[in-house]
Amino acid sequence: LQFSKNEIDENNQLVNQIVTMDTYQLTNVIKSLPKDLKNALLIELAAEIEEDANEFDPDVIEEDTGFPDEKISNLIRLREYIRKQYEIAPMVQYEPKLLRVRVSRGKDRENIGKRYKGYCQMCEKPSRFWEVAEIFNNPTKELEFMNLSLCPTCASKYRQLRNDKTIMMNFAKNIRSAEIIDPSALIDEDCVTFTKAHLAEIQMVLELDKSIPIFKEVEYL
Ligand SMILES: [Zn+2]
After folding, report:
1. What is the mean pLDDT of residues 100-129?
2. 149 alpha carbon – ligand 1 mean position (Å)
3. Rounded to the nearest 5°, which phi and psi values hold at 159?
4. Does the structure show a pLDDT above 50 at 221?
5. Distance 103 CA to ligand 1 centre (A)
6. Is 86 exposed, middle or buried (0-12, 13-18, 19+ CB in 10 A)?
7. How many angstroms does the Cα of residue 136 sit away from the middle of ligand 1?
8. pLDDT of residue 42
């Protein structure tokens, strides 16, 4: 059994809807599916959830010691380093098999959670159960810093926001215009805070990567 490209796209759309459902809605949807689709969907869902990593980090100090700062000693050097990283970053690759598996991802994304010492970039509180969420859907390159460190509550909120194209276009614009001195960007009614270095890294990639549809459209705004 192989899925065609169209079927994979439809599946992905469905998966995007499903990952934002609550348990009750989800149970009903799954109950209503024919058996082989049910199995395929569950495998696909597992793969999707795999894309955003969950991490339990017992070393996180859960009392508030201050949101990490990551001062930049040399912005020009940092931007040059990111430009090189971007050039050599592997392309995101999928192999269409029974399910769509992202084969290019490394295990280095947990660095983001470590850099934020378990702090959530939305509520700015530390959590031992931090999650790493891809900033934008469907990235073209594997770059570990194109992720956010979030607590479980904000992570599920973020995944909902991430499916809204208009919200994400505005978020991308806000990231681009954010100042290193106040490294934060509004996303809908919420705010995502970055370390100075992390913001500079993301801004550099937004300059370089014209392939992400969101940014192409931002150019026209
Ligand atoms: Zn949070």
Report:
1. 81
2. 9
3. -65, -30
4. no
5. 29
6. middle
7. 18
8. 66
Q: Encoding tokens for residue 129?
A: 């159960």
CA 120 to centroid of ligand 1, rounded, Å: 5
| pLDDT above 80 (res 143) | yes
Burial class (CB in 10 A: 0-12, 13-18, 19+), 179: exposed
Neighbours of 129 (CB within 10 A): 14
Q: Which two tokens stand for residue 60?
A: 């996180």
pLDDT of residue 27: 73
**CA 175 – CA 203 distance, rounded (Å):** 7
Alpha-carbon 38 to chain mean position: 26
Find tokens 């530390």 and name the residue.
Answer: 126
What's the confidence (pLDDT) of residue 36? Answer: 65
Distances (CA, A) of 209 to 19, 30, 119: 27, 37, 27
More confident residue, 179 or 39: 179
In the predicted structure, residue 158 carries a pLDDT above the cut 70 = yes
CA of residue 155 to ligand 1 center, whole Å:
7
> 83 CA to middle of ligand 1, Å?
30
Question: Does residue 219 have a pLDDT over 50?
Answer: no
Q: Please give the distance, rounded to the nearest whole angstrom, from the Cα atom of residue 190 to the centre of ligand 1.
A: 11
